Amino acid sequence: MKIEKFEEIQAWKETRILVKEIYSSFSDCRDFAFKDQIQRAGISIMSNTAEGFERNTNKEFVNFLPIARGSCAEPKSLLYAALDIGCIEEGIFRHMYGQISKVNGLVNGFISYLKSNLKVK
């Protein structure tokens, strides 16, 4: 399957859902620095996926995807802090942690796909 635009990448789509959930779940958070940090962490995953795709070569894309994968660790870590300080409940924590893990797996799979020299663009 040929991907024509970054919006078709499953990892990007799932991260978009995650970012929406982060914004919704932390909308009432009064710690604005914390809220800003977790929001930016989620957006970083999306942005690195999109930016890598727009570089127009698999080689450059493969360089950006590990950055996106690494960016998954930040919101995971921040979710623990949010849970510990009472900003979110356990169920929200588990759901978002699972969503981030799903994105991480999709990014890993996409890295393998690109490294197998299949044409993306």
Descriptive terms for the model:
121 residues, mainly alpha, de novo design (two linked rop proteins), 75% helix
What is shown here, in short?
The chain has one domain: de novo design (two linked rop proteins). It has helices at residues 10-25, 32-54, 58-71, 73-84, 90-115.
Structural features, described:
There is one protein chain. The protein has 121 residues and is mostly helical. It has a single domain (7-24, 31-115), classed as de novo design (two linked rop proteins) (Up-down Bundle). The protein is 75% helix and 0% strand. It is built from five helices and no strands. It has helices spanning 10-25, 32-54, 58-71, 73-84, 90-115. The radius of gyration is 15 Å and the shape is elongated. The N and C termini lie close together (10 Å). The mean pLDDT is 91.
How would the blueprint of this fold be written?
Blueprint: H1 10-25, H2 32-54, H3 58-71, H4 73-84, H5 90-115
